[in-house]
């Protein structure tokens, strides 16, 4: 009988822990904490290699903002072009959000973007 009571106590503790987790998540969302997604930037072809390959980006950022950041980071001239590809197959529209692309094309919890200075795929 005491074993049954112990199991009921464990189940109650699990229920309290899951309720706390749910409430904690709701409180974090209320604070306005922005969700971040890990993206990996991999060079292709003649693209310069970036020192940092992994970046945490706000989920609501459009890919165009990432391209602008990369242009500055790589110190590209205004006439030099930069191409981004998802899964080495297609170039996303600059107004696509990181969240949308992550939801559709993430690989093991990360979004992999290949970049180059000349058109490679698609």
Structure description:
The chain is an alpha+beta fold and 122 residues long. It is 39% helix and 19% strand. It is built from 3 helices and 4 strands; from the N terminus they run αββαβαβ. Strands 2-1-4-3 form a 4-stranded mixed sheet. The protein starts with a helix and ends in a 6-residue tail after the last strand. The relative contact order is 0.19.
From the alpha carbons, calculate the radius of gyration and give it in angstroms: 21 Å
Helix share, percent: 25-40%
Percent of residues in beta strands: 15-25%
Low-confidence stretches: 5-31
N-C termini distance:
67 Å
What's the main sheet like?
A: 4 strands, mixed
Read across the widest sheet, the strand sequence of neighbours is 2-1-4-3
Instruction: Note the overall shape.
Output: globular
Question: Count of DSSP E strands?
Answer: 4
| Overall average residue pLDDT | 78
Secondary-structure element series? HEEHEHE
Name the structural class.
alpha+beta
Tell me the number of helical segments per DSSP (H or I, 4 or more residues long): 3
